[in-house]
Amino acid sequence: MRQRLKSFETFNGLTDLKNLPFTTKKDFADCFPFGALAVPKSEIARIHTSSGSTSKPIATFYTKNDLEVWSELLARGLSCIGAGRGDVFQNTVSLGMFTGGLGYIDGAERLGMTVVPLGSANAERQLETMRDFEVTVFHAIPSFGIRMAELMESLGTAFRESLKIKLAIFGAEPWTKEMRSKVEDCLGICAFNNYGLAEVGGPGVAVECPSKAGLHLWEDHFVAEVIDPKTCEPLESEEEGELVLTPLSREAVPILRYRTGDITRIIDGPCDCGRTHRRIDWLKGRLDDMIKIRGIGVYPSNIEKIIALHKESNGTFQILLSGIDDLTVRLEVKGSALKDPPCLESLKASIFNEIKEATMLRTKIEIVEQGSIPRSDGKAKRVVDTRKLA
Ligand code: ZN
Question: Is the pTM value of this prediction over 0.90?
Fold first, then answer.
């Protein structure tokens, strides 16, 4: 600790950042709720929490200035995907404690968009509202995008043509480019990936531009490092590892070197869009999302990628872990495919082989009809692990 402090006293700017300690999710949990607050409570303008998808939620606080910066970053992100004045923006996520709610409303207003703050509602109501108010841009979490896509297919071409949606920004959940393409095709939109997390202030850390070759990280507000998650040593640009973020402008919760648990790499070099902020690669998933089966580490995204490429699937799936180490992949297929047993058998065989090739694991493939896997308006529960109970 003394050595740490000494290096802090002689801190020589960003090159010395690597000598400072990390902040972790556990640090936040240990000091919940107010321990990380650096301003008097009377200076807090708003409180949000993380969704608590992997643990107890994390509290995050904003001063008036933090809210200003945040709305500017979200406005910048929306502008980066091609939205602006004249567009009508609908937020499909909960407008409560979740950072993706009010944050986006503020950002869209700031950009001069017309805002439809519907918040959480079922997919039917979301699509109806989009049609009624001629919505052109929306924000959603990826699993809800899949749900809307599914519904759109059942509503048919005439309904789809009655909508004006053209752009969408997705975030808060790991997903794959393959799933993005599926959602884009079904909804007839161009979809972009956004990255952020409550611990550093919510969404608005990095976003894709129309080049879709990585997410521009707003380096005027965040310093990004990529480290080896085992040794904690910084990695070179282009090397894949765990993303570590130091927010530069946060007043209420100014933290150093937050270990995000997210796997990516920093992409150097210019982007076709002309923006000079460096990019991070499409997030591969969170370290703690990795499941260990028979000694092999697998991310749900490894499976999602494979499933999304099959046109018979609607993109909804679950990974079931049971017994000692049994792996079943359950996926929904569209009605027409279900009525065709030879097609189902060949689908099962191809998914089995593709998963085996990608992960070396032999899986049981279970096919169910559309709507069988429980849906939730929150984040998707992709993995059901009953191994410990067995
Ligand atoms: Zn770009």
Answer: no
